[in-house]
Amino acid sequence: MMTFRNSLILSAALLAVACTPTIQLDTPKQGITINMNVVVDHNISVKMDEQTQKAVEDVNGKDKNKKGNQ
Questions:
Q1: In angstroms, rounded to a whole number, what is the distance separating the alpha carbons of residues 33 and 51?
Q2: How far does CA 53 lie from the centroid of its chain?
Q3: Cα–Cα distance measured from residue 13 to residue 35, given in angstroms and rounded to the nearest whole number
Q4: The CA-based dihedral angle spanning residues 47, 48, 54, 55, taken in that order and rounded to the nearest 10 degrees
Q5: Domain ranges of the chain
Q6: Is the separation of the CB atoms in 56 and 48 below 8 Å?
Q7: What share of the chain is helix, strand, coil (3-state, %, to 5)?
Q8: pLDDT of the chain, 70 residues: tens digit per residue
């Protein structure tokens, strides 16, 4: 016959096993829909110092002269 101590240990073990936490995840039947109304506006701004601006203008002027001579 089991002693009181053994039955108490067995009861505590069964209780501990019965109370284990479980996590259940259920995925939705339909996918997730995200509606995004986005307006993309792009503006490119180039800033140059005076020396660089003059060099670019000189190169562009030479390119125009080459195209005109051909």
A1: 53
A2: 40
A3: 52
A4: -120
A5: 1-61
A6: yes
A7: 50, 0, 50
A8: 568 888 888 888 888 777 667 788 888 888 888 888 888 888 888 888 999 889 988 888 876 666 555 5
